[in-house]
Amino acid sequence: xxxxxxxxxxxxxxxxxxxxxxxxxxxxxxxxxxxxxxxxxxxxxxxxxxxxxxxxxxxxxxxxxxxxxxxxxxxxxxxxxxxxxxxxxxxxxxxxxxxxxxxxxxxxxxxxxxxxxxxxxxxxxxxxxxxxxxxxxxxxxxxxxxxxxxxxxxxxxxxxxxxxxxxxxx
Length: 170
Known about the structure:
Elements: H1 2-15, H2 23-34, H3 36-40, H4 42-47, H5 56-64, E1 71-73, E2 77-84, E3 88-97, E4 105-110, E5 115-119, E6 129-137, E7 143-153, E8 160-169
C-alpha cells in the first residue's frame, strides 16, 4: 500500500504541468532515487511500468543490452531566441549513425512537461540519418528559459543531453 501511494505521488508530480519553478521535477527525481523500498523492489515496479516512466537506470541498461554504435548530432543546443508567450515552437535535431551497428533510440525523456519529444522509432542503419524533435510550449513561462531532454540510445555515453533556450516575451 505504501509503495502504491509513493508511485501515485511520483506520477502525479511527474505529469503535473510545468511551472516557472521546477522544484517539483527535482522532488520527483529525488523521491524516485532515494526511497529504499522502491529500490529494493525495482524489478516488481518496473515490470508493470510503461516506457514513459521507466527509471533512468533501466533505460541505460536497456540501451547497453543492444550492440553499441556511435552517432553525430547536427547540434546539441538550439536557441529559439524570442518566443511569444503561449506560442509552441519546435526544433529538429538531426542524428547520423556513424557506427557499424544499427542505432536504436529507446526513449527521449524531456526534463519538463512543457517539452514534447518525437523521434525516429525504427533502427537507424549505419550512415543513415534520423530525427529527434523537441516541441516547447511557452504558455507557463516568462523570460529566459533553458530546457533539456535526455536521449537513450545504444551508444557508449547514454543518455545524450539535448538542450534548448528561449526568451519568452509577452
